[in-house]
Amino acid sequence: MKKTWIAAAALAGFAAVVLPPAVAQFQPDPNLTTAPIHQVASARKLADDAPVTLEGNIKRHIRGDRYEFVDTTGSIDVKIEQKHWNGQVVNPKTRVRLTGEVDKDLLSTKVDVKRLEVVTAQADSAAKPPGGFRPN
């Protein structure tokens, strides 16, 4: 019994000397960090998986979780999963900020949205506005 206690104490002392202390470290999600706001034209030129923030309007629902996003420089398809809507309702006149990453395929460039923020809300956001979008 005495040997067990000595071995346990020695192991605890060894662990205290050799192992670093446990310290919580916050590492922000790179997709949600404050990235410079890009325009569609410049976002199309970014590398695959590059973080991007766009500000403009969701013009239309294409299908499923795909939407057409527009700003003053053009349009781009965006993928917005239901969990990223957070109950928000937007219409083509609602200005939004989308944060996510560029998704480049052989023939197309899209943005995989990780966060959707309403920049300017319509007056009645409780009801679905005419032409408004909600997650499917």
Task: Outline the structure in words.
The chain is α/β, with parallel strands linked by helices and 136 residues long. The chain is built from two helices and six strands. A five-stranded mixed beta barrel has the order 2-3-4-6-5. Helix 2 (40-43) links the parallel strand 1 and strand 2 (51-63). It starts with a helix and ends in a 16-residue tail after the last strand.
Strand elements, count: 6
Portion in beta strands: 35-45%
Which spans have pLDDT < 50 for at least 5 consecutive residues?
none
The whole-angstrom Rg is 24 Å
Span from first to last CA?
65 Å
Run of helices and strands: HEHEEEEE
Query: What spatial form do the alpha-carbon principal axes imply?
Result: globular
Mean pLDDT: 79
Concise synopsis of the structure shown:
The protein is α/β, with parallel strands linked by helices and 136 residues long.
Q: What's the structural blueprint in terms of helices and strands?
A:
Blueprint: H1 2-18, E1 37-38, H2 40-43, E2 51-63, E3 66-71, E4 74-80, E5 95-104, E6 109-120
